[in-house]
Specification:
Layout lengths: L32 H20 L1 H26 L4 H22 L1 H9 L1 H16 L5 H19 L20 H32 L2 H10 L3 H43 L4 H11 L5 H18 L2 H26 L8 H15 L1 H20 L4 H7 L2
Length: 389
């Protein structure tokens, strides 16, 4: 009689041990879809308005920034018993006179630099030809390949193969000097008009003084504590923005002077013009220093005909921007709030897309003002923390 034995159980080592799944941690963050949707729509509407009405916003922002930068001088003159209307006029006329005198003194160098552009372009072409020599360059190979592909396409599209197809040739419109001059004149008139608006609006803002501050105190409420807190916040915001703008103007002037002296010592032509360009472009973080270094290096190569001199010219400009931007500027702005590098880069992209070149110049000061306000308002402190370094 056969007896079937049950299979032996698995040994203890072969038993499969199962562990309970860890409990998932959930963040209980209430999200109001309606409020989020309204915020997104409001943000898109704000971007559209800023882009559509940039002809209005750009002069207004320039005037506000200039008034913040020059108001301390007007306030100092007022403490010396100079009427505010006269002090604001003296400050503006002094700045415009200094700019006009600088432009007049450098006009000959600027004209000489513009007149030398065709000669410089010819030198650059000759240098490329000498560097290539008789050997076939990569560019020539690509051009020959493109020509052969085009010939093959034309042979494949023979008249017999494209029966019934009408060939259309689009001719480019000829260059009209009158249209070019007319568009240039319209642009110049618009620039002069916007400059006039900026000058008068800056004067009126400096003339108003603390009028808007007193109005904010009236709107703060009847309690003395609320007015005191509002006044303190306005003082801190104004001081912080003024300090930031003054540091930017000072460091830009320092970069311009150092660049002029360095390029003059190297022997580069029109060094003063390049110094002014370096000072203006220093207001644009990251991008301005790279543009100045690359452009000056190219001009140095065209003038001296040597790659070593081009590297020397571009390197000198880049070193000056690096020293001033990484040592002097942080030391001077140690008391002011600093923006995160990510926020600075994103702000440059956003404002450059909105307002072009003016957006690159105004984007960082605008974000600095936004951060200063957000740091002093309870409901907006998360935004200020996000923008900070």
């Amino acid at each position: 009689m056969n007896v079937e034995h049950a299979p032996d159980p698995l040994p203890a080592a072969a038993e499969i041990t199962t562990f309970p799944e860890p409990e998932r941690l959930l963040l209980h963050m209430p999200v109001d879809i309606r409020n989020v949707s309204l915020m997104v729509l409001a943000g898109l509407g704000l971007l559209f308005v800023l882009h559509w009405a940039k002809a209005v916003f750009i002069p207004v922002m320039l005037s506000i920034l200039f008034s913040y930068a020059f108001s301390p001088v007007v306030n100092w003159l007022e403490t010396r018993r100079v009427p505010r209307w006269l002090g604001a006029a003296v400050v503006l006329l002094s700045i415009l006179g200094a700019m006009g005198a600088t432009a007049y003194s450098l006009s000959d160098e600027a004209v000489a630099m513009v007149e030398s552009l065709p000669v410089a372009a010819q030198k650059f072409r000759n240098a490329l030809k000498r560097s290539s020599g008789k050997s076939t360059s990569t560019l020539d190979t690509v051009q020959k390949a493109a020509t052969q592909i085009e010939q093959a396409a034309q042979e494949g599209a023979a008249p017999g193969a494209t029966r019934g197809v009408t060939r259309v040739v689009v001719e480019r419109a000829s260059f009209n000097v009158k249209d070019y001059l007319w568009s240039g004149t319209i642009g110049l008139i618009a620039l002069v008009g916007q400059t006039t608006v900026v000058i008068f609006l800056t004067y009126f803002l400096m003339l108003s003084g603390d009028t808007f501050r007193r109005k904010m105190l009236k709107l703060a409420g009847p309690n003395l504590s609320d007015k005191k807190i509002t006044l303190q916040a306005l003082h801190e915001i104004t001081g912080q923005i003024q300090r930031y703008l003054q540091v930017q103007l000072l460091t830009s002037a320092l970069v311009g002077v150092l660049t002029w002296l360095a390029l003059w010592a190297i022997g580069l032509d029109n060094a003063a013009v390049w110094g002014i360009a370096a000072g203006v472009l220093n207001l644009v973080p990251y991008v301005g220093s790279l543009i100045t270094a690359v452009a000056s290096a190219l001009v140095g190569f065209l003038q001296f005909g040597s790659l070593n001199m081009a590297v020397l010219v571009g390197g000198a400009s880049l070193v000056i921007h690096t020293i001033v931007g990484n040592i002097i500027t942080p030391w001077l702005t140690s008391r002011a709030s600093r923006l995160s590098p990510v926020a600075v880069f994103v702000a440059l992209l956003a404002w450059g897309w909105l307002w072009g070149v003016w957006g690159l110049l105004l984007g960082i000061p605008i974000m600095m003002m936004v951060k200063s306000v957000c740091d002093r308002v309870d409901d907006l402190k998360p935004v200020g923390e996000f923008l900070g370094s």
